[in-house]
Amino acid sequence: MNVEIISVGTELLLGDILNTNAQYLSKELALLGINVFSQMTVGDNIERLKRCFEFAFKRADVIITTGGLGPTTDDITKEAAASYFEQEMFIDDESWEKIQNKCIKFSGNKGSIPQNNIRQAMFPKEAIIIPNNNGTAPGAIFEKNGKKIIVMPGPPREMKAMFVESILPILKNGSGYIIDSKYLRFFGIGESALEIKLINILDSQTNPTVALYAKEGEVLVRVTAMCNTQIECDKLLNEKIAEIKNICGEYIYLIGGDEISSSQTELDNVVGKMLVESNLKIAVAESCTGGLVSSCLINYPGISKVFLEGCIAYSNEAKVDRLSVKLSTLKKYGAVSHETAKEMAIGIAKNMNANIGVSTTGIAGPGGGSNQKPVGLVYIGIYINGNVYSFEKVFPGDRRKIRERATREALNLIRLQLLKSRS
Questions:
Q1: Separation CA 265–CA 271 (nearest Å)
Q2: Per-residue model confidence (pLDDT) at position 258
Q3: Can you name the CATH fold of 2-175?
Q4: Which contacts qualify for 320-327: CB closer than 8 Å, 24 or more apart?
Q5: What ranges do the domains of the chain cover?
Q6: Which residues of the chain have pLDDT under 50?
Q7: Taking a C-beta distance cutoff of 8 angstroms, is the pair 201, 244 a contact?
Q8: Do 227 and 236 meet the contact criterion of CB atoms below 8 Å apart?
Q9: Are 291 and 359 in contact (CB under 8 A)?
Q10: Topology of domain 178-255, CATH
């Protein structure tokens, strides 16, 4: 199968939007063993797009497009595909009903549905309509004389979800093989460092293939096998994952899930599940993260069984009065220190009679730093079953990034301490 990718949108040509969709699709198709000979970007012009179709089909069996499925007159991708295959467009009643329901859900007002949204419900009768579970614009597969045009929405979140949920299975079935993937999520190691550790695997890979993706604050590794049977796929995948775990398993916090799901949500769920299963009560005292750690923990359903309290002790007075941090500790070492982090963790745990106490204290900036204690310096304290630890980290980025990275680091440290307590 040979595929060409066409990205539709004048905003892409002008450089107003970075074209991440083409990069994503190229990687996905390569892992399936599908040839991508060319990528094209074209503006919102129906005749130019049809000429792109004509040119692409000289080399490809399938064209995949992204963009141009919106409700306005410059969204012309479906119209161009239908015109190219000489297929007439009609309103699909089922699609129009779904679009109206989504518009009402988004706005809360039935009378606010723009009538031009009806354009998103128009398809040829010959087309296969692809549902969009994350937006109002359905995708579609146009086909004639053995040639296919697959149209998908432009917003990356919608496009990726549609590709994984609907297009990927079609492409896999068309390959004649069983193609399966498993995902490994890494925390505490960057993409470059992980690549060095796995370089022998990456350089010698054939089947399965191994691909690294840098995500927000973590690295995702996808292992993909292509075999005649699912049993063969499972065997190859499990062997390769065992090999990776043997090299750098200490950084893996999850095997499973997919690339679309939020990495933050995945780590929340892993830690929340571990806490509930361990039945260890936890309380959190936060300064620089301002409640983010607690907020992440309570994302997990059922966490109320073990989560006792989240306390934001931002001032020194709150640290002393609420968490029993010694005034002498603050004067000698400062609020941002190993000693204060430990006392915060002990204080919240003992005050709440919790098995685990977690604390964060740091300098999120943009001001307030010094040579000794720069912006981005964070201490995370963990008290667990009578033992107390503190960890020093320095995070780059602005105030928001520093707080988010400190939060994720705290969650991962909870995970590691829970693993340690099991052994």
A1: 10
A2: 67
A3: Molybdenum Cofactor Biosythetic Enzyme; Chain A (3.40.980)
A4: 322/285, 322/347, 322/351, 323/285, 323/347, 323/348, 323/351, 323/359, 324/350, 324/351
A5: 2-175, 178-255, 263-422
A6: none
A7: yes
A8: yes
A9: no
A10: Alpha-Beta Plaits (3.30.70)
